[in-house]
Design goal:
The structure holds two protein chains of two kinds.
Chain A: H1 2-17, H2 19-41, E1 46-47, E2 50-51, H3 52-82, H4 86-91, H5 97-126, H6 134-157, H7 161-178, H8 190-197, H9 200-209, H10 215-242
Helix pairs in contact in A: 1-5, 2-3, 2-5, 3-5, 3-6, 3-7, 3-9, 5-6, 5-10, 6-9, 6-10, 9-10
Chain B: E1 2-11, E2 14-24, E3 29-33, H1 40-47, E4 55-60, E5 63-64, H2 69-75, E6 76-79, H3 91-101, H4 106-119, H5 135-148, E7 153-157, H6 165-180, E8 184-189, H7 192-198, E9 201-206, E10 209-214, H8 216-223, E11 226-232, E12 235-241, H9 244-252, E13 258-262, H10 265-273
Parallel strand pairs in B: 3-8, 3-9, 6-7, 7-8
Antiparallel strand pairs in B: 1-2, 1-4, 4-5, 9-10, 11-12, 11-13
The chains are: A mainly alpha, B alpha/beta.
Chain lengths: 244, 279
């Protein structure tokens, strides 16, 4: 466990050192989305009987935790492999690469959890629309871990910084807009709806709202996120052992 | 002891290391000398388990890296050519993380960190972020980090490349202190003086092949201890002689700009490859 603790301690030291800048950067996008879509475009709009602000807050938490967890892990791994070469120091140390994968995924997920906490504190000051349940917390945590695990795998697979940006443009950004963050996926064309239903963020957003869903549906969302997490973690840990 | 047996690394159209055979004894300070692209770094990367080998074997202290990867890793300390310290952490924090990764107990880890900072003359800078360090200080800290877990074998890949003359001298002093401790070291370099000053034995490597292997003095003697350097037909030529007398005799027969000097490992390399190491 000393190896895992070492990885987590290293990330924590760096986090502490950049605490203020990190905290502010985590709040900028959510605040802009809330102002533009919640108070701006969405004022006077209702979806499913609730105000638009109440509708998009869980979506923004889902989207922000996805982006923060993914970006932190993917960029840390990719830059440490290609630019700083700090990745090599872990490769030559006598820790199991599965432990390394676990450490980095936990660290990335922590950033997502931290960003969600900041958003929850911020929106709680202005509105009572957000209801936090244990299920909500479990789903938010799973979302952080799923996208941190995806970031770990992509950070290992992609061999240039520009390709990292392309992955974000082609996969992460479309997910953030299409997976029910800003509007219900029922409004999408039938074929597209099924594709969107396969994506993890869709289940996060549906689960964070949980309006009128059965317990089977709630379990299904959590189960799909767990399945994504297991597959992405196994792929990342396996690839980590062979990467040069 | 490090044994390298028929070690080969092939990329698509290139054989970077070609059936390398080498044995380094306990306590030996061994140098791999060759120009850029000779296969030195690839060899170090294969020993440090970063690059998978195509064929052959590497045995450290009786254990093959094929079978005992984790335990082999604990026996090696690596100083790579490129800085790979965590820039946003202090010198002490970099060492602390390394100690944790190598599963060193807390008390021993803290004691060794102090010892290594002292050894590398970085005690005063222990709490400074490494992004503010000079190139020489970063390299020293990387050596401290590589020694922290008390490895059996230290791999130094071009430890003075990119350093100015003063920093290089200081690094050589540090490496001499290291040598006096009796640690087994494999150093790669393309600096002639570095190999001559530090190494008990030197392997000359070019295009992935080991050309010669012996003590620097023996290699120089094999070529001729005295070099006559002269300029003719628009380029510098070298001829090698076993004694000063014979060199004087030959120099007397030449016209123009002639210089007689002691031979060095550059001359040895030139003799066997027709190429210069520091080119």
């Amino acid at each position: 466990m000393s190896g895992l603790y070492g990885i987590l301690w290293q990330e924590f030291v760096v986090f502490k050192r950049k605490f203020v800048a990190t905290s502010i950067s985590f709040l900028i996008s959510p605040v802009l989305y809330l102002v533009a879509f919640g108070w701006g475009l969405g004022s006077g709009v209702e979806i499913g009987g609730v105000s638009y602000m109440a509708y998009i807050i869980p979506g923004i938490i889902g989207m922000s935790t996805m982006m923060t967890s993914f970006n932190n892990t993917a960029n840390t791994i990719n830059i440490s492999r290609i630019f700083y070469k700090t990745f090599e120091d872990y490769m030559i140390s006598p820790i199991n690469m599965t432990v390394y994968a676990l450490g980095k995924i936990i660290s990335g997920a922590f950033y997502g959890i931290y960003s969600a906490t900041l958003i929850i504190i911020m929106v709680s000051i202005f509105t009572n629309d957000l209801v936090i349940t244990p299920y909500f917390i479990v789903i938010a945590l799973l979302n952080c871990f799923v996208f941190s695990a995806l970031g770990f795998l992509i950070g290992l697979l992609v061999n240039s910084h520009s390709d990292m940006a392309k992955f974000t443009s082609f996969v992460i950004t479309p997910m953030s807009f299409l997976c029910g963050t800003f509007f219900p996926i029922d409004k999408m064309p039938e074929v597209l709806k099924w594709i969107i239903y396969l994506l993890p963020l869709t289940h996060t957003n549906l689960a964070l709202r949980t309006t009128g869903e059965s317990s089977q549906q709630m379990a299904l969302h959590a189960g799909i996120l767990v399945a994504y997490l297991v597959v992405l973690f196994v792929l990342g840990a396996r690839h980590c052992k062979t990467v040069e | 002891m490090l044994e390298i047996i028929d070690l080969t690394k092939k990329y698509k159209n290139l054989t970077a290391v070609d059936a390398l055979n080498l044995t380094i004894a306990d306590g030996e300070f061994f140098g791999l000398l060759g120009p850029n692209g000779a296969g030195k770094t690839t060899t170090v990367r294969m020993i440090s388990t970063l690059t998978p080998k195509t064929s052959g074997d590497i045995v450290i202290g009786g254990e093959s890296i094929d079978r005992n990867l984790i335990s082999i890793k604990a026996k090696i300390g690596v100083v790579p050519q490129q800085n790979n310290l965590e820039n946003e952490m202090s010198a002490w924090e970099n060492l602390e993380v390394h100690g944790m990764l190598y599963k060193m107990p807390k008390e021993k880890r803290r004691q060794k960190i102090d010892e290594m900072l002292e050894f590398t003359e970085l005690t005063e800078r222990r709490d400074d972020l490494t992004k503010n360090f000079s190139g020489g200080m970063k390299r020293k800290l990387m050596i401290a980090r590589a020694l922290l877990h008390e490895p059996e074998l230290l791999l130094l890949d071009e430890p003075t490349v990119g350093l100015d003359a003063a920093a290089r001298r200081k690094m050589w002093d540090l490496l001499k202190r290291l040598k006096s401790k009796g640690l087994t070291v494999l150093l790669t370099t393309h600096y002639i003086e570095e190999a001559e000053i530090l190494c008990d034995r030197v392997g000359l490597i070019d295009k992935g092949k080991l050309l010669r292997l012996d003590a620097p003095a023996n290699l120089i003697e094999e070529v001729g201890k005295v070099t006559v350097e002269y300029f003719a037909d628009g380029e510098t030529h070298e001829e090698f002689f076993p004694t000063r007398e014979k060199a004087n005799e030959y120099a007397g027969s030449l016209e123009g700009d002639v210089r007689i000097r002691p031979s060095n490992l550059e001359d040895v390399f030139l003799k066997f490859t027709n190429r210069r190491v520091e080119s």
